[in-house]
Amino acid sequence: MKKDDFSTQELDNLEKSNHRYFQVDLLKAVMIFLVIFDHTVPWALKDYMGVALWERISIPVFLVIMGFNMGLSFKQTGETSLKKLYSWNYFKKKFWRYIFPFFVLYLLSTFIGLAINGFDLDALNQYQYRFDFAHLFIGILPFYGPGNWFLPVVFWSILIVPLLYKGFSGKLKWRIITLTLCYIVELSVHLAILFILIPNVASYPEFMFYFRFTYTTPLFLLSAIGLGLWFSKNHNIFAKKNIFIWILFPLSLVYLIAFQFFDFFFGFEFGDYHLLVFPYSAFLVLIALKLIPKKVNNNNLFIKGIRIISKSTYHILLTQILYFAIAISIWGDHYGASIFGIDIGYDPLVVFLYLLINWVICIPIGAIWWYGETRVREYRRLRKILKSNNKKKRI
Fold this sequence. Notes:
The protein is an all-alpha fold. The protein has helices spanning 3-17, 22-38, 43-46, 58-77, 82-85, 88-116, 121-124, 150-168, 172-197, 204-215, 222-233, 243-262, 278-291, 301-311, 313-331, 348-394. Helix 2 runs antiparallel to helix 4 (58-77).
């Protein structure tokens, strides 16, 4: 067998041996389509589409899946000590999975932003009234595009989730305490913004400066990740330990209906991603895990496409951030109502065509980016293994 043949075959075997949930792959693929939908369709149309019940679930579902996947990953290693959970190998994997692609995007988007703005540093920050220079250190790009706020959440999660898993890896009592603490911390952050931050800021820009540092941490979204970690232990929707979700789900559903159609809210909520809406999305994830088969025919082209999109959702998110940042810089907006600088109104057909264009551009480019990056990295790793084996044979 030739060296190159060995590498290609081993790569294929690695992918086939990876124990994945097809339900999760399908959910992630659908949700990334909805993220692009959210950044394409104007709110003037979305307000009449009941999006809180089906489209705005994309980020909550991603958060639940984040906790679920991280829980399964730690469970596979069998490690429960903080020293092992925060291992060098863990951080190395997260660096190549999330941090390195962000650096690539940072350099590329900054150069494109400078080029579009005539290399004017002052004009580069498109949302200068909302983001200060300090925000760059948490992952907010100077050439900002919608969805960028979620990147710091991912980065902070790398540091926080192993600690959470430590609590969820213990006995049932500790799991209950940990999940309860997730809710308490998240609610406390909302209340702190309401009663401490708002009364002590003098202007909206100052409020947004501090609010963004809070909003872009998992602390603001902790209950969704906690639910994912909880269900990584047992995702059977009918399990006795999951009975609480049958209580939270209808309450969450009623809240979302009241929020969507009657503009109801209690007053402490900031945005529509919070502990009152997450049980609804978590319940949908459990339904998918129950009804959709885990194992499917991997030779089916549709299934292969779903798996590739699922694995590349992060790179697709990065791609659409840059794509929409360019649209904002050139046309002043990223929604369909003003595409190409022309006021096209809110014609659903035109907006839908614009959505198709965005899907066709962002999904394949992000998938190709992930695929090329992964292949190069795995190929180099396997070549290193082969080289090491050859040395041992000569010895």
